[in-house]
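Sequence and structure are kept together here, with a separate record for every protein. A complete record is shown below as an example:
=====
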Amino acid sequence: MKNVCLLILSMGLIFGGCKEYSNKKMKSFIPGTYIAKWNDEFANTCDTIIIESQSENKDFQITQIMRSQFLNKSKMPLHKIHHWTASFDEVNKCLLITNNGRMLFYYPEKNELKSGTIIFKKTK
């Protein structure tokens, strides 16, 4: 009985430690530059997200740069820049943007970041 209790306790510590390592590993992979490009009948669009780690805590600084070149030459190109602060949500394994409540999901095995239906590929 004592051996069973020790076995269960040691397995709990191992799995708990793996989860913490997984969160740290994921947080270390998140900073970088992500790009999504798409074309539709109205414009060619390039959306870039730059994520920088603020410190050892869970905070990140995010800059989004969106550029659209309209196919209708009479319209001026669109260029928007947004700055956000986000924190790492360890339960959902995502970045929660504090300014607007958006969630950015990161998939390290694919080097991708997903914001809604848009998939960004990590470049750096």
Summary: The CA atoms of residues 19 and 90 lie 10 Å apart. The first helix runs from residue 2 to 29. The domain at 2-122 is CATH 2.40.128 (Lipocalin).
